[in-house]
Prior knowledge:
heterodimer; A: 419 residues; alpha/beta; Urease, subunit C, domain 1; TIM Barrel; 7-stranded mixed beta sheet; 12 helices; 17 strands; globular; disordered N terminus; B: alpha/beta; 8-stranded mixed beta sheet; 5-stranded parallel beta sheet; 31% helix
Amino acid sequence: MFAFGRSFFAVALFFCMPIGLAAQETDDSDKNQKPKLAIHVGKILTSVGDPIANGTILVSDGKIEDIGPRSEIQVPEGYQEIDHSDHFAMPGLIDAHSHVGGSRDLNEMVYQTNPELRNWDQVIPHNDQLKVAIAGGVTSICYIPGSGTNMGGFGVLMKTGPGKPEDVIMRAPGVLKIAQAGNPERRTGETGSGRMGMNYVIRQQLREGQMYVRQWDAFQAGEAPEPEFNLRLEYFKPLFHREIPVVVHTQQYQVIQSTVRILHDEMNLKVVIDHGTFDAYKIGKELAKRDIPVMAGPRGFLLDRDQGQVVGIVNEYEKRGIKVLGVNTDAPVIPQEELFFQAAMAVRYGWSEERAIKGLTIQAAKALMIDDRVGSLEKGKDADIVITTGSILDPRNHVTEVFIDGRSVYDTKVDRQRF
Amino acid sequence: MSVRTNMISTGLLVIVMSCAATLVTAQDDGPRNRRRGSEGRRAQQREVKPEKAADEQEKKEAGPITAVVGGDIHTVTGSMIRGGTLLMQDGKITELGNDIEVPEGATIIDATGKVITPGFVAINMSGLGVRSAPQKQDKLNDALDPFDRNMKFALGVGITSGCVELSSRGGRGRRRRNGEPEERFLGLDPNPEEYVTEALLDYGDEDTSLCPCCGLPVLPTEPITSRPPSQPQPRKFAALKLSFGNLDSMLLEENVFYSPNPGSLTGALNRHNWRREVLKAKKAIQAEADKKKDTNTAKPGDKEGTASKAGASSGSRTAASSSRGGSRINPELLRLLKHEIALRISADTVDEIKDMADLASELDYDLIIEGGTEAWLVVDDVSQSETQVIYTPRRRRNARRGAEETSGSHVGSPGIFQKAGIPFAVSALSSSISLGGLAGRDLSSLPLEAAFAVRGGADEKTSLAAITITPARMLGLEDRIGSIEVGKDADILILNGPPLDYRTYVEQAIVDGKVCYDRAKDRVYPVFDRE
């Protein structure tokens, strides 16, 4: 029994750091394939500072080596120069809520909470949906289990480009998926057929996990004997250490209230509101007070029935001071490639274009806690670069080339325009 | 007094000019519409209308004049007029240009810095102005609702007229009605749209499935296959004008297409039957023409008899009685073969499109294909048969495995169509206004869908035409709607930016010369000033 547990533990650990072992191997063999590039661009939207007119991005080893005005960047010898001087460049887009990173069997619904489940074995890199997503500028997604139960399992953060699963996976476990209200409601009369019951099973499961993590922490600190290994609760460790966030299927004012109360205030978790639709924005100030990120969508507007008027949800959050604010597609509800269009519609309903560009990139990265690697064009970050014919928010423009980890993975000069 | 005589003479001038304008339009149609030229329905209308209008003119004086001044006018059919003036009277455009003097007493709408376009024409529209399809004996006019608030949401994005399908069908609703099993995911709420009281999205013919995560409908992307043969059962379409608050002008035209069901012209037997029907109808038309020639001198006052009667009488009596109405010719079929209306049918695969184009060429009728997913692969067949396409740029179907270059949809289709001279109308992803919260996917995204045509390589002008004059021509209503020309209906939009820009809002929508939508007053969409 013990040996059985240990071997599982080893497997679990392995998957906690898949990039450590497997990716290193590919790094060695692929070193020559990671090109050194100098990309000259008409206008660079970096998602951090001001836009750079006539800029150059130096790329080597999959990372941004340098970035700045073309006049200030010396292109070293041996760098392949790519001319996009009549185009825009921006960081790759990041979707905080997606179900198309692999197979769609994302709901196991025997139990109400399933912290033992993980979906990174399901990943299918560069699948048909993702190929088109790249043509829409999407380079990273948060691929998560469904909302058939209150706790669907742990999701994964991954790149959309080609490669082996260990090449594209950025972090596993990436996030925990919790679903409150709506879809996970059980209709058979057991606990969880209403919101009282659902909130109970969520709290109960998290408490169990918290206790488990505390026991291990105490053991690690030499204050307690080694606890018994429990695969069901193992992934709660990074969650309660606040190393990964919980993305929450939550919408409507009342439900978001319970999200804030239970997941943030009571459990002290890193929370991302991953739908936040209908009238939920009305609690925006409480979210802003706690710095809780909102990745709103896929619904982008609410019909205010009293006024008979359409209200733009993202802009309402903006008005209430949400700093880390973005959109999502819940792909395939909105096709993955239309992530930019979710932001465009938010702009149509009142949001600012500058905030929309950041919401698609750096803000989503912050929400998912991957902003050390992606979300902006800065020295040292992953070279995930999207080249467009103009502002990506305008549907009349299109993506002409996409680099992921410094490799060109889509180029309309070679490939047929996919979106 | 002089003003009044002026107005009357202007009015008369208008009528003369409108006749001239329509004639010019008919000639300007080019080769594409030559078959629907002077012998078509419009010619008949012209025979009657001016007289009638003149009679009315004598009875009542011309109405007040409204002037829209200072805007950049996209005429669609002509060149752009910067800072132009447009005069409207009695629901028609009476004058247009840069050096137009605004008559004294005219109501002036200042459009300085704004963009003026014709009202958009939605080739697919549902749940707007007509709530339930009228049953057999009911008249469509009695089913119209001029105060349907959904119309405001359509006017608010610029849609001033469109084509509604009257036969009840479409999407998930249809499947439910037919008692077929609903797609459902184990354990999911059978009614996942619990927070949304209205239908979320009407994807029409699309075989939608539900998202495993949230239960919302998801458009299919898997490869398409040709439809299996099915029985003919023509669909009915009517053109409506969204003249909010004005019932009289709502109904533009009934039976604007001859529209067999998808699949009803596929398969050898179906096609054999179709050829037989068409030949029979052609004989009837010929017989009618002969008869008319014979009796022309005898009964000069006799109006053209109803075509269906002529068809029935020319056919064999015994056949008619034995096969229970089998030889009664559909009057819409006769209109199709006289090039008064076009045949509209769904066709997506290469096979379907080629078959439909071949049949249209062989049997000589005008063809509009809806869908046209793989039309980009057979542009020669499409353009040679003068086929027109109703296309949704964002509708995506994957290629079949191993046939990536020769199957599936192509985002560049609009550009390919334009290059090949294939007229295309843009249809939104859904035909109805949906207030469930998914933004930019229902009928209200029509101009944005046209923006996606620009993304797909068509130019701005062609893409704007795809939601104005091109659908108007498909409906046979290009003498009334779809462009800004003197003599046409005064369906005008005042926009705060370029028509296909995603940030642009309609400030005012004018239908038949009346302001039917005002962004600041109606407040159906967010009202704000963009810095």
